[in-house]
Amino acid sequence: MRLNGVVPEGFRLTAEDQGLVLRIHGTWDSRVVSPEIVEDESRDLGERLETTVFAALDSIQDSVTEYLRIPWPSADGRSMAEPGVRYDGDAIHLWYGDSEKAAVLGLSAIPLSEVVSES
Question: What pTM did the predictor assign?
Fold first, then answer.
């Protein structure tokens, strides 16, 4: 939902088969992320979450930029604002830009409770 609120018109992300899928004007484009990284318990949870969210942001950015043939998101129309992710133990913070405080495009944090179920 966070990303659907900021991607350009015609792009839509949906949760399918425990993964995230990107569609462009209703046509399947790519599988953005799969749950395998988060489920890999050989690494720290924070590292897994940061890796997964970064991969999703990066993949979405690549698809949008390739389709539109312009850098997205961009502060100046010439260069892309790189994805950024930070896990603080309670939530995953995500943005595009040089830093969280200087984000070209900021997104609301994802509380840990939204992505990890307690067993």
Answer: 0.89
